From TrEMBL:
Coiled-coil spans in chain: none
HAMAP family, A to Z: Ribosomal_bL36 (MF_00251)
Matches recorded under SUPFAM superfamilies: Ribosomal protein L36 (SSF57840)
Annotated NCBIfam families: PRK00831.1
The protein, known as: Large ribosomal subunit protein bL36
Family membership: Belongs to the bacterial ribosomal protein bL36 family.
InterPro entries, alphabetized: Ribosomal_bL36 (IPR000473), Ribosomal_bL36_sp (IPR035977), Ribosomal_L36_bact (IPR047621)
Region described as Disordered: 1-40
UniProt KW keywords: Ribonucleoprotein, Ribosomal protein
One Pfam family from the record: Ribosomal_L36
Gene name tied to this protein: ykgO
Keyword Ribonucleoprotein: yes
Length: 40
């Protein structure tokens, strides 16, 4: 899990989902689990 300023490049990856949990914005990706990140 990376903490990033901008999730724009990650959310365009194939299979990526943008999720909001507890006030944090997360990107999760079932196809490529290495592309997990959070912002906030």
């Amino acid at each position: 899990m990376k903490v990033r300023n901008s999730l724009r490049s990650l959310k365009q990856a194939p299979g990526a989902q943008l999720v909001r949990r507890r006030g944090k914005t997360l990107v999760i990706n079932k196809k490529n689990p290495r592309l997990k990140a959070r912002q906030g």
